[in-house]
């Protein structure tokens, strides 16, 4: 097996760069790693009782498990325990399996423990040493009842988690070892979408920052757009990315399609909303048609991203309202006109509805948001925490749709894959129970289903996977799950994962902070990982305040309240 290669297009980690470091799954070449295997490694710990398609039942010897617990090799010390790996001898090699559960054998030997295992893959046997090599996912040759079960050693795990040469990023250490590096393959991770899940307080934001930093380091000319609803990630990517918020986003209102215009401008419901929508469509098309670009383009639609003046739109509304042959009263026209005047007058909406945003800046806007060119800063953080809550989902919808539309219309150009990362994804792609029929849910669902065909990768980050739309999580080829405290969330994640990973997923409630289970396309086999520490300057501003510490301090509260009220009244201006 080769160590991680270092293709020209990615600056991936090379063990030669850091003496004593370990490649993605190879481990160090230290003397400790090369020492002879102990007796525990060469003696069986159990026997296969029955075989099924994806797993098996085995009987483990309690005495042998006790002997293994004293072993200096951490992998052998955990042999047979829930979440550990064991290997089974087959006719021409080894089969690797993960222990899902244990129970005492009450019917037979009191010194035996029954366990269910999930098959993970198989490898060939080195004739001289008996070790595993050429490990591969899946099973082609099953063992038979009576086959012996052995503990998997750290040396075995080095071979099992060894890179197959594809470009990858390293994110932590494989549990239960202390030196085997864990990583994810870049192309399968991004090419088939991924999801990062975890309850509040488990280190999810820091884990997301770590993964994105590693991707940026591997692909400094990449194109990554992250929607940040809480303003957490600005601090983490100030040096390696570009930060956009309401002060500098300058997203022109005319980039919205008709559906998004309806969300922002229409305030009615029921039958009245359909009347208003018909009027809006007619007036919007006329307003777009007044631009010179419309003449050069030829036939345009109400969705065409052609700039128009809000004043032109208001005038057209006024003209239509004054016509004697109009089908409705003046009320629908006045509702739309009043809403436009409100948006123009409210300073909170200036980032989008400013009179300065009437020029044709579409190419420049796409270039800066999608990092084309990236100039060594491949990620743009879109901080929507300052966006008024009533149009936040519309802003996210516009950005997401532009990613999708750009990918479709750029198929004749050199492909430029884009990664769209959505924090708090359950807010934007909710399930049927919480659905509000918003455009952002529809476009993100479409990206999840069709995006990979056009070179769009979707990264979903959420603390409530059970609140996500049905089917969206199952579209994610790689799932990175940190601790989930809610039973519904745990069941939802298990249902989205392949059968062979269920044993790993059973340990989700028992994960420590900054630990995760990774299953799917981005890894060779399911693994439990302890994330690397991230440098202070690269961490998101997501730490919880310390009540015990802050409530001991006093002084300056009156001035702080006055300053806060000032910012409150001016809406941060």
Cα separation of the termini: 59 Å
Radius of gyration: 29 Å
Q: Count the domains.
A: 3
> Which fold does the CATH topology of the largest domain refer to?
Rossmann fold
The CATH class of the largest domain turns out to be Alpha Beta
**Helix-strand makeup class:** alpha/beta
Provide a count of the helices: 21
**Low-confidence blocks of residues:** 1-37
CATH architecture of the largest domain: 3-Layer(aba) Sandwich
Provide an overview of this structure:
The chain has 573 residues and is α/β, with parallel strands linked by helices. The chain folds into three domains: 40-161, no CATH class; 181-250 and 359-543, P-loop containing nucleotide triphosphate hydrolases (Rossmann fold, 3-Layer(aba) Sandwich); 258-347, no CATH class. It is 33% helix and 20% strand. The protein contains 21 helices and 18 strands. It has helices at 31-34, 39-42, 62-69, 74-77, 154-160, 186-191, 204-218, 258-265, 271-289, 292-297, 310-322, 331-345, 350-353, 362-369, 389-409, 425-428, 439-450, 487-496, 502-505, 547-550, 557-570; strands at residues 46-51, 55-61, 85-89, 93-104, 112-125, 132-137, 148-151, 168-174, 181-185, 194-197, 224-228, 241-244, 379-383, 418-423, 456-462, 478-481, 515-520, 527-531. The strands form two sheets. The protein has an eleven-stranded mixed sheet. Strand 5 (112-125) and strand 6 form a beta hairpin. Helix 9 (271-289) packs across helix 11 (310-322), helix 9 packs across helix 12 (331-345) and helix 15 packs parallel to helix 17 (439-450). The protein is elongated, with a radius of gyration of 29 Å. Residues 1-14 have a biased composition (Polar residues). Residues 1-42 are annotated as: Disordered. This is AAA-like domain protein. It comes from Croceibacterium atlanticum. InterPro entries: HerA-like, HerA_central, P-loop_NTPase.
